[in-house]
Specification:
Elements lengths: L3 E9 L4 H5 L12 H14 L4 E6 L3 H11 L7 E4 L16 H7 L1 H9 L12 H18 L5 E6 L1 H11 L17 E7 L3 E5 L3
Parallel strand pairs: 1-4, 2-3, 2-4
Antiparallel strand pairs: 1-5, 5-6
GO biological process, one term: glycolytic process
Keywords: Glycolysis, Isomerase
Pfam families: His_Phos_1
Length: about 200
């Protein structure tokens, strides 16, 4: 395993109104639902005893709002950093559309996505391979910037956290859909200089 570097916590934002409706929400933003607000309040209580002094968050509003609700931007003992590398995957022309609309208007592409997402690129959007690479670079940036920190948090998205798990466990982007990431929950890794250990999933 090598030397211990840090604990790294990934947090998925609270549920949004788009999540409720089955809408593809990558780069577009929808407000948190009432349930999402409750999830964030509960998560704040769960993480209250952890000594987190650095928080990264994606540049999307739902992640930023969650970071503020859980950690409080007014706290001077926590360093807050916006990091677009942790934005959700770009669904391109599918942004803001639900599954029925996509299947009706992009039927062939949708079937290709279902058959093999590993090589798929969303129309005028991002491929899973490019997304995985983006998130991986963001993780390496955090590790290089945060050596010596006890616990570092990343407030992001379901897809981002899936990609992070795949990268840290050396599974590659092909394993993307082998994990479910719940809203308003955290995933905890212990980071060593030669490996990473998944300690908590959907805590």
């Amino acid at each position: 395993m090598g030397d211990l570097l840090m604990k790294l916590i990934f947090i998925r934002h609270g549920e949004t109104e788009a999540n409720n409706k089955g809408i593809y929400q990558g780069t577009c933003d929808y407000p948190l639902s009432n349930n999402g607000i409750i999830q964030n309040i509960n998560l704040k209580s769960k993480l209250g005893q952890m000594n987190i002094n650095k928080v990264y968050y994606s540049s999307l509003k739902r992640a930023k709002v969650t970071a503020d609700m859980v950690f409080d931007f007014s706290k001077e003992d926590i360093k807050f950093l916006e990091e677009p590398a942790f934005n959700e995957i770009d669904f391109g022309k599918w942004e803001g559309k639900d599954y029925r609309y996509i299947d009706l208007n992009y039927h062939d592409e949708f079937q290709n996505f279902i058959k093999d997402y590993r090589t798929f690129m969303f129309p005028e959007g991002e491929s899973f391979k490019a997304f995985y690479s983006r998130v991986s670079l963001g993780i390496e940036k955090i590790i290089s910037e945060s050596k010596g920190e006890e616990i570092v948090a990343v407030v992001a998205h379901g897809g981002t956290i899936r990609a992070a798990i795949c990268y840290l466990l050396s599974l590659g982007h092909e394993a993307f859909y082998k994990f479910n990431i719940n809203h308003g929950c955290y995933t905890l890794f212990t980071i060593y200089d030669e490996s990473a250990v998944l300690e908590v999933l959907n805590g």
